[in-house]
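Second opinion, please. Pick holes in both lines of this record:
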Amino acid sequence: MEDAGDGERPPVVPGSPRQRRALLVVNSKSRDGGKAIEAAATLLRSGGIHLLQEQCRNSDELPATIRRLAGSIDLVILGGGDGTMNSAAPALIETGLPLGILPLGTANDLARTLGIPFDLDGAAQVIVDGHVRHIDLGEVNGRPFFNVASIGLSVEVTCELTRETKRRWGRLGYAIATCRALWRMRPFSAEIRREGQVDRVRAIQIAVGNGRHYGGGMTVQEDAEIDDGRLNLYSIEFEQLWRLALIYPAFRAGRHGLWREVRTATCEQVEIRTRRPRPVNTDGELTTRTPARFRVLRHAVAVLAPAQAQQASTPEERKP
């Protein structure tokens, strides 16, 4: 542990603002987690942030660590990828502590959505600046997620995307894992239930997005925002999987709904049922199974984000 002291808040110098006290947890298993982040830590300290650094052996320990220290810290700073942020979500909702992000993962889609720089110094400066943005979370079967939850192809990709593949190939690993997954992927039957409407589909993937980006820069929907109070659903209903190569540019831009084989919808709640239970992927982790009930959690978490993004999306400007 670093800078831990005796667990009490550091003394305040009369006439000066109190230092913000932050829990810092770095996922050493992230693709870039082994690289030195001392420069970013130095920038944080020089910006008036007192760091309480903790080690978590696995992501399951992270929520308990946040809850244990919640009474003695002002914010949580996490170094890792989207899986790390996802693990912390329940504790962030419960404690109301703001989240600072140091992007150390392979995809870093939450950071991308929020406009947080991928270089650690830039990300640390965003935290020092202290601009707060209140964002939505998605929830499926009681499990919160930041970016997207999906059924089908993405689950197979997650199984193929090993730690070694991510370390060796970085974002290119997603393409490699997708090609491998497509060899064994078959369409599945599902019911999509929303607002009194039932759609029966045969799909290779059904996804429900809360944020804007997922999967290393894919776009959930062209106009999606992470604080717009809505979920964006799509269902890929190709029978000929090779056609995915043709639609790939549309998915990058979030315009896949223009293709007749892709069903899209915007909603606040939706339920997906399948003939047999199927795993659900939330932000790159397999966390639950169908039947899957989704809803949006309005302004559930506060994050430290660039000022321009914060000013464009305040709670007052976006109504439920």
Notes: The first strand starts at residue 20 and ends at 26. The chain has a mean pLDDT of 85. The chain has two domains: 20-130, 143-298. The two ends are 42 Å apart (CA to CA).
